[in-house]
Amino acid sequence: MMFKKPKSSGLTAEIRVKRCYGCGAILQDKDPDEPGYVPPEKFASDDEVLCERCFKLRHYSAYSKSTDFSIDYVTILDHAKESDALVVYVLNAFSLYGSALAGIGNYLPSKVLVLINKRDLLPKSFADDYLRKEAEDVLAKENIKPLDILITSASSSSQGNIETLMEDIEKYRGGKDVYFIGSYQVGKSSLINALLFHYSNRTDKTITTSPYPGTTLDVISIPLDENSSMFDTPGIYNSRSVISVLEPEILKYVLPRNEVRPETYAAKEGQSFLFANFARLDFVKGGRTNFTFFKSNDLTITRAKVNKADEFMKKIGEDDSSSTRSKKISDPSLLELHSFHAPKGKRAVLRIYGLCFVEFDGEEQEINVLAPQGVTVTLGDASL
C-alpha cells in the first residue's frame, strides 16, 4: 500500500470543505452565477445549508419524482466503469434502507465494496449479522453483488475497522482508482478523514478539489500512488429520505449524534406518536402493543389520542419556541398518508426513511403513518 504514517496531520484539514447538502456543490459566497453560491451570512454559519439554486428548487418547485442522479453522477460512474475502478458504496447503519440509492445498481461497475458506516449509532446489542442481512436485501433489489460488506464507524476507534478498510481497498482496487459514493449524511468524508488521520501519501502529488472532467461537480482527488487516486464525490440527494426534506436546523435533532437509546411505549388502539409537526404514527386498531422506537436521542416523541393528533400537530407548527417544528408544513393535510396491516405472529419493523425505525410484535394491527411528501415508509419483517 502506498501509504505510511504521517509526519504531520495537515492533510485532513485540506478536505474539510463545506458542501451544499442538496447537490453536493462546494459552497462559495463570491459569485452568484457559479455553482454552490450562498449569501455571505449563510456561508459564515456553522449550520448545513443549501446553495441558492437548491434552495429555490426545494421551496418554490413541486416535489419531484425524477431520479436523484444527475447526468454528472452518471458521467463519473461511467468513467469508473470504463477504467475498471473500485467503487466504495457507503450506507448509513442507522438508516440503512433510507440511505440506499434507488436505481444506483444500473450505473455501478463490477467492482463494488459496500460499507455500512456509523455502526456506533446503533445499540451495541444490535447484531452485525442482522445489519449485513439488511444490506444484502437492499443490494439484491438493485442487483448489486459486492466484493465484500464491511461495517465501519469513522468516529469510533473501537468499531472503526479503518485498518481493515484500507486493506480491502488495496486488495480489491488492483492498482486502479477508487471512488467513494453515497447519499447525503452517510459519512463518506468522515471515513476518508479517518483514513488520512492514520496515513499520508508517498507521492509528490497533493490533494486537489476541482470539477470532475465533463461535469460541474467538485470532487476531492486524493493520490494513492503515481498512477491512481481516491475520489470523494458529493453526497447524492435522496428524495426518499426525510433528511432531504427537512430544514437544516431540524436535522441536528433528527440525525443521531451518539448511540441511540431504544424507547419502548405500551399503547392501545387510538393512540398517536408525534414527531413534532412533520411525522406521525397512528395506532388505529389492535390489541395492546409495545412499540420500540429507534431514533435520535435529541428528538422527543409526543403522545396524543388519534382524534386529537391533528390539533396537536397544528399547535406545534404554530409554536415559535419549538426547535423541531418544520415551517414548511403548516397543516397535517400536507403530509402523505401510509396505511399498514401488520401480519400476525411476526416481529415487524416499520421504517420512516431517514427518521426512525419501530419494532413490535405483529398481531394484525392497523397502523397509519403521516410523513412528508415523497418520503418512503415501509413495514417489513424484523427477523429478515
Which terms would index this structure?
single chain, 384 residues, Rossmann fold, 2 domains, 7-stranded mixed sheet, 5-stranded antiparallel sheet, globular
Question: If you had to describe this structure to a student in words, what would you say it looks like?
Answer:
The strands form 4 sheets. This protein has a 7-stranded mixed β-sheet. Strand 3, helix 6 and strand 4 form a beta-alpha-beta unit. The chain contains 10 helices and 19 strands. The protein is globular and about 65 Å long. It has 2 domains: 237 residues, P-loop containing nucleotide triphosphate hydrolases (Rossmann fold), CATH 3.40.50.300; 138 residues, no CATH class. About 5% of the residues have low confidence. The chain is an alpha+beta fold and 384 residues long.
Detail the topology: elements first, then pairings.
Blueprint: E1 3-4, H1 10-14, H2 40-43, H3 52-60, H4 71-82, E2 86-92, H5 96-99, E3 112-117, H6 128-141, E4 148-151, H7 162-173, E5 178-181, H8 188-198, E6 200-201, E7 208-211, E8 218-223, E9 229-232, H9 248-254, E10 263-267, E11 271-275, E12 279-285, E13 289-294, E14 301-305, H10 306-318, E15 336-341, E16 347-352, E17 356-361, E18 366-371, E19 377-381
Parallel strand pairs: 2-3, 2-5, 3-4, 5-9
Antiparallel strand pairs: 1-6, 7-8, 8-9, 10-13, 11-12, 11-14, 12-18, 13-17, 15-18, 16-17, 16-19
